[in-house]
Amino acid sequence: MRQDEHLVIEPSVLYVGTPVYLVVTRNADGTANLAPASSHWALGRMLVLGLETDGQSYANLVERPQLTVNFPSSGQWRNVERLAAVTGRDPVPAAKAHRYRTERRKFELAGLTEQPSELVAPPRVREAPLQFEGEVRRITPGVDPGYAMVEVEVVRVHALPELHVPGTQHIDPGAWHPLIYAFRHFYDRGEELGWTRSSPTASGPPELGPPPLEPESASGPLDELARWEGFGGTWALRELDAEGAVVSLCRCDGGEEVSRIVSADPAFLRWAAEQEVQP
């Protein structure tokens, strides 16, 4: 796609696709508050959660900085969606009054059950395949006062046995199907496409194939072809006539075409004349 083919748009949300989580906090009366969210990222043992400041989860964490973060599977999207129009706040904040109602029995509403935690006061969600217990280490106000960034240290991780790689401390990514929230729709993660070289569960390094060539890095078509071969790629002469030659640059396994060299350079044509055309 050429750069000028992109459109300038103003989407109502920027949820490009992240796993949904259910955050559980403690209310002042000791009961549990359950709420869905999707804004978060992780680094090391820390999670950074993006929470609305007019929600019950945020109010609880300011006063009682412990929580559990529970990741539902893709098949549990209906349980999550049952929580979409309720809040633990009473009264409901004015900005939410037109689409939310107060609900204290959120676990029952969602068809989920509480499971005692081991290191923090708020319970876990028993049905969630992956559960984190956490302690809030810092809360930073957002540029917009409507949200805050909550930094959480994960102090314990719980996983269903079928997600665990036996004999290790690793999660099997092939067995884990988080619920993905993208532009207000729910999705499964789909099929595995590859892995990063730092994966502790992969069978070997990722198969990336030769990197794309930068036109300015080669002084001529034969130099470009030599660079491709140097990266382990293969090629095939597709066309040759008086107007030029066409060579396909293919993956190192001899498979799909990645790019083409089309040139009428005299040296390239002399080289092509010595090759066999493979239509």
Automatic annotation (TrEMBL):
Provide a Gene Ontology MF annotation, just one.
oxidoreductase activity, acting on the CH-NH group of donors, NAD or NADP as acceptor
Region entry Disordered: which residue ranges? 196-220
Q: Which cofactor does it need?
A: FMN
Q: Do the record's keywords include NADP?
A: no
Per UniProt, what is one Pfam family of this protein? Flavin_Reduct
Superkingdom per UniProt: Bacteria
Q: Where is the Flavin reductase like domain?
A: 17-187
Give the keywords, sorted: Flavoprotein
Q: Keyword Flavoprotein: yes or no? A: yes
Q: Which family is this sequence assigned to?
A: Belongs to the flavoredoxin family.
Q: Which PANTHER family match?
A: FLAVOREDOXIN, FLAVOREDOXIN-RELATED-RELATED
- Any idea what this protein is called? Flavin reductase like domain-containing protein
Q: Origin organism of this chain?
A: Agromyces mediolanus
